Amino acid sequence: MIHAWGITDKGVVRSQNQDSYYLKQLGEDLAVAIVCDGMGGARSGNIASALAVEAASTYLESLPLDELLRAPGEHLAQAAEVANEAVYHRAAQEAECHGMGTTMVAALVHGGRAHILNIGDSRAYSIGAEGITKVTRDHSVVEDLVVRGELTPEEARCHPQKNLITRCLGAEAKARTDLYETEAAGEFLLLCTDGLSNTLTDQELLYEVLHGGEAESCCQRMLDISLSRGAPDNVTAVLIQMA
The whole model's pTM is what? Predict the structure, then answer.
């Protein structure tokens, strides 16, 4: 049986929460989660993330369960495309929304298997007895530097360009998303915005999920740590315990 929890907060510094998330259990062994981090100004970032979550979740909820499970990766990709169209067209139509966009990390978990999609620098982690693994790859300037060996992961965490992303929903007419699949029965899947991953290390995330206390309070514990460290950005986390 799958269990899932989520939390979002504006953080300490920001006056508005431009993150949005969706989490729904569609059965004992099926859950869908979407996490978005909006950008593009004081108001439009909030619009972008909320619009993307609404469009993607509406598409996924419209599908019969057997159809959703027949091709989960394809449907996640289509959900992201629907979200991209919604954000892209809103940005083109309204001057105050021009240039807005949003990251997205989404997962469809069925039993012990997870299908995951991302664009931008919101992340998915697989966490279990073997440790913590970042499933997704950030679409960001510093991630490209790390891949090329020009930065270490530790240097990337404090690099002045760490918030510059190279892909997002709404920037182009077609979304360029990545899909992943992982099998991890009995483990945890963590989806989060960079507001969390920039304030807690991977090892701290691992500790809180596995050893910090009850799973149902884990998102709150991680948020509390981020807030205690100044939480300069919005913080969102979704934790799914995979059956």
Answer: 0.95
3-state SS, residue 143 = helix
Asked if residues 200 and 190 have their Cβ atoms less than 8 Å apart, the reply is no
Between CA 24 and CA 108 the distance in angstroms is 10
**Neighbouring-strand partners of residue 169:** 102
DSSP line for 1-47: --EEEEEEE-TTT-SS--EEEEEEEEETTEEEEEEEEEESSTTHHHH
> Rounded to the nearest 5°, which phi and psi values hold at 161?
-105, 20
User: Regarding the domain delimited by 3-241, which CATH topology (the fold level of the hierarchy) does it fall under?
Assistant: Phosphatase 2c; domain 1 (3.60.40)
Q: What is the pLDDT of residues 20-62, one digit of tens each?
A: 999 999 888 999 999 999 997 656 999 999 999 999 999 999 9
Where do the structural domains in the chain lie, given as residue ranges? 3-241
The confidence band for 152, taking pLDDT boundaries of 50, 70 and 90, is confident
Q: In this structure, what token pair is assigned to residue 204?
A: 């701290």
The model's pLDDT over 120-147, given as tens digits with 9 standing for 90+, comes to 999 999 999 999 999 999 999 888 887 8
